[in-house]
Amino acid sequence: MTDASLVVTDLHVEFSGFVAVGGVSFDAHPGEVRFLIGPNGAGKTTCIDAITGLTPATGSARLGEKELLGRQVHKIVRLGIGRTFQTASVFDELTVLQNLDIAAGRHRHSSSLLRARRGTDASIERALEETGLAGELATPAGILSHGQKQWLEIAMLLVQNAKVLLLDEPVAGMSQDERTATGELLQRIAAKRIVLVVEHDMDFMRRFATRVTVLHQGRVLSQGTVAEVQADPQVQEVYLGTAGAATTDAMAIVPGPAAGTPPRKED
Ligand SMILES: Nc1ncnc2c1ncn2[C@@H]1O[C@H](COP(=O)(O)OP(=O)(O)OP(=O)(O)O)[C@@H](O)[C@H]1O
After folding, report:
1. How far apart are CA 160 and CA 166, in angstroms?
2. Residues 194 and 267 placed together within one structural domain of the fold
3. Burial, 198: exposed, middle or buried (Cβ in 10 Å; 0-12, 13-18, 19+)?
């Protein structure tokens, strides 16, 4: 739960002289589902890595009054910044409840699962309800569907009371129904938190984004509503390789690594 905004200003990341992120600025507010999109290698994940302290960066990334850059990873987590990775990082051999217990900093022996419901924290109850996993309490995470695993990761962030959820390709590999359920979940979560989604799935972006920032070669190419960025000739050029030939359906095509390269079809 937060009233504060995430404000990223002039973010800069270099790897041995290679500028992966070269002066990126954007903001994200509670109440919106914010998207960061762009071709492969555009710098999206690096931005999230910088905000979460995994990669050194210059510039500024503030949550409200608090500067995040320069802090250690665990201190950034403690300020309420949570993230997911492209591959779900849940404990497959543990149940949904045990995974959530770990997120909440508790240890529950498997024998106590019989009285699991009685011993469940209010925060875990809420996260289970919110993510639709309430019926899967005793299910080993390893046999959840791909979508359910992603929802479990999101539930773990909710249990930790994350104020900011940075989600790296949350719907990759999901069925259409799971994508829709995930989009609706993100809209619910975003009512009181900051949700920033890195995505390649343009259909998903179009359906659920409130505002979008398009990155290209480490810089902001365009920002605005879905309609605004889709109408931007620069975005069309990057996504199709030919400015002017694009239609508003241009972004149904997953971008290639650079303008001029053949577009890659959506998975
Ligand atoms: N640790 C690293 N060392 C060197 N170069 C890196 C490192 N991490 C990322 N890069 C480079 O920085 C650029 C941006 O990478 P990044 O992963 O942020 O892009 P992305 O937009 O998330 O791409 P994708 O959609 O393919 O995940 C790429 O050229 C990548 O090769």
Report:
1. 14
2. yes
3. buried
Which domain-ending residue is among 142, 158, 174?
158
pLDDT at 105: 78
Residue nearest to atom 24 of ligand 1 (CA): 40
pTM recorded for the entire structure: 0.86
Write the DSSP string, 195-221: EEEE-S-HHHHHHH-SEEEEEETTEEE
Which amino acids bring their CB within 6 angstroms of ligand 1?
A: 15, 18, 20, 38, 40-46
- Alpha-carbon span 124 to 117, nearest angstrom: 10
What tens digit of pLDDT does each residue of 228-241 get?
999 999 998 887 66
Phi-psi region of 41 (alpha: psi -120 to 50; beta: other; left: phi over 0): left
Structural domain harbouring 97? 88-158
Q: Which residues is 8 bridged to in the sheet? A: 26, 61
Most informative mutation of 11, 14, 15 for ligand 1 (most atoms within 8 A of CB): 15
Is residue 178 located within the same domain as residue 233? yes
Reported ipTM: the value is: 0.96
159-192 pLDDT tens trace: 999 999 999 999 988 999 999 999 999 999 999 9
Q: Which of 123, 158, 193 lies at the terminal end of a domain, its last residue?
A: 158
Residues 97 and 217 reside in one and the same domain: no
Are 153 and 174 contained in the same domain?
A: no
Residues 122 and 32 in one domain: no
The token duo for 171 is: 């719907």
Spatial CA neighbour of 165 closest among 181, 185, 147, 180: 185
How close is the Cα of 217 to the center of ligand 1, in Å? 10
pLDDT > 70? residue 138 = yes
- The verdict on 222 and 241 lying in the same domain is yes
